[in-house]
Amino acid sequence: xxxxxxxxxxxxxxxxxxxxxxxxxxxxxxxxxxxxxxxxxxxxxxxxxxxxxxxxxxxxxxxxxxxxxxxxxxxxxxxxxxxxxxxxxxxxxxxxxxxxxxxxxxxxxxxxxxxxxxxxxxxxxxxxxxxxxxxxxxxxxxxxxxxxxxxxxxxxxxxxxxxxxxxxxxxxxxxxxxxxxxx
Length: 183
What we know:
This protein is mostly helical. The protein has one domain (3-181). It contains 7 helices and 3 strands; from the N terminus they run E-E-E-H-H-H-H-H-H-H. It has helices at residues 41-53, 65-71, 74-99, 104-114, 128-147, 152-164, 166-181; strands spanning 3-6, 14-17, 26-27. It has a 3-stranded antiparallel beta sheet. It is elongated.
């Protein structure tokens, strides 16, 4: 199984895994967009999270929106939101570490020139320390997904369902805001 991370040019770290949907984790990644720094971090975060989830490259699971909404419990939405926020904290830390590396500028430019995300570059194209950071994020994300009681199939189902279901997106977004306001 080949790990492929998505690194949006707006500064996010995230990933999905190539291969079959039932065995591969699909995670949202979010980053603060420099042009939006004047807006509240929370608004930018929740907007970015939902928007970036839509960019993940995984074949859509055909589930009608009404069915998707009905099949995802409030408990699942709560745990999903907590997992996403936990992953985002680690992603931000790792992204800051990556940006501090001398190789970062060249590697991010190389990825932009190819029209791919940094971690979509082959392992041979990535300096070991950047590749290592991608691996750290992958492992931490897997841990958080499991910590909040999901297997990859269920987490992916929610990720895919929220891309098609505005009500589910809103439920997740609302829960994320509530969790952040209680911190």
